[in-house]
Structures are given as C-alpha cells and as structure tokens.
Inverse folding.
C-alpha cells in the first residue's frame, strides 16, 4: 500500500473547495500506511477474531475515538481564559484529526473486506463514498452505471481507474459542500461557552461516526468468512 497521493483530487476546484480536498488527500496519504497496524490493534485482544468480530472492533474504536476528540476539544475551547481565536484554531485542528480518523476507519474496512486500496483513486472513492453516506452511494452507482448493493465491492474493486476518476470528480463536489459545511458548523459549535462546546463537539462527532459506520456496512455488505 503506497502512502503517496499523486494527482490531488483538489485540482480544478475553487477555494475553499481546494483546501477541503487537499486536506482529504493529506489524510488519505498519512493514514494509508497505518491501515494494517490499525487492524492488528483491533485484533490485539482476540488474535483469532473473525472478520466480523474485527469489523465490530474497528467500529467501536472509531466511534469512541471520534466522540472523545470532539468532546475534549469542545471542553478545552470553553475553558476560562481561552480566546475565540485559540478556540477556533483548536477546533479546526480537531476537524482534520476527525477526517484522519474517518479515513483510517474507511480504509481499514476495505482492507478487511479484501477490497484493493493500492491505488489512490480507489482510496478516494472509498473515503468520500462512506463519509457522504446515501448520497455518496447514489452518486457512485449513477456515474459507474451499475446498480445493486455494496458498491465497495461491486464498483471500487472492479471498475477501471478512469471510471473512478469520473466518480471522484463528482464526489469531490458533494464532499466540499456537505462534509465541509457539517464540519464548519461543528467547529463553531465547539467554541460555545460554559461547557456546551464539549457536549456539542462530542455529540456531533458521535453522530457523524454512527452515520459512517452505517455507510460502511452498506458499502461492503456482510463480512467475509476469512
């Protein structure tokens, strides 16, 4: 699994869309090399775990980590003496950390399901498709001109890279609009005073993680037997 991310998905996108997609590519590049270590960590307590059990562990780890980072930054941002500028900086940094955690989760699911992630376009499709949920799967099926369940196996693992590039171009526009907007709202919510930011940050991240878990299940379907 190569960690390089050639040919940024951010090309031809205006600001601030280019920045959002550049962060996505950065997250993909940094997390790809950690996928197998992450899976090994999920199986650490149960080395003989089945793929289904490993996936459940990955889901629990992801929801817990994302919820924890959101609540921690929300609480820090609301602490006495922390100015708005510092609060926003803390929260913006956490938004990228959340994107990294989500990227690692999505790519780890693909690895357990045996879906190839050796090419950057496949990695982009997997990550954006899962984070966009239902709209992501609908876009993938429409552009790929394929119908049926489990696009992670039926599309990402089988269609040519050129088709994935077309899919990613459309997904990228939706990703900038939907994911960027959601994160922007969450960032502002985390700087709310009197501890409210911790509740907003943790709750919002938990909701995003839960949606991603559901999207991952739809994307790949039942776990493999081995």
């Amino acid at each position: 699994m190569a960690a390089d991310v050639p040919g940024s998905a951010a090309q031809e996108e205006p600001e601030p869309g280019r920045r959002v997609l550049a962060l996505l590519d950065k997250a993909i590049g940094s997390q790809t090399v950690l996928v197998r270590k992450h899976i090994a960590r999920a199986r650490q307590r149960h080395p003989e775990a089945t793929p289904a059990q490993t996936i459940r562990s990955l889901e629990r780890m992801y929801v817990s980590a994302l919820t924890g980072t959101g609540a921690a930054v929300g609480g820090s941002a609301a602490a006495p003496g922390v100015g708005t500028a510092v609060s926003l900086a803390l929260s913006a940094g956490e938004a990228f950390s959340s994107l990294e955690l989500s990227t690692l989760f999505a790519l780890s699911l693909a690895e357990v399901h045996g879906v190839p992630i050796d090419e950057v376009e496949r990695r982009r499709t997997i990550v954006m498709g899962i984070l966009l949920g239902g709209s992501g799967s609908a876009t993938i099926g429409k552009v790929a001109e394929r119908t049926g369940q489990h696009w992670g196996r039926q599309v990402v693992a089988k269609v040519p890279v050129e088709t994935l590039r077309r899919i990613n171009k459309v997904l990228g526009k939706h990703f900038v609009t939907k994911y960027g907007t959601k994160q922007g709202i969450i960032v502002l919510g985390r700087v709310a005073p009197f501890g409210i930011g911790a509740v907003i940050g943790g709750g919002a991240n938990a909701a995003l993680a839960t949606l991603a878990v559901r999207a991952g299940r739809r994307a790949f379907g039942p776990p493999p037997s081995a």
Notes: Confidence is low (pLDDT under 50) at residues 1-8, 71-94, 185-201.
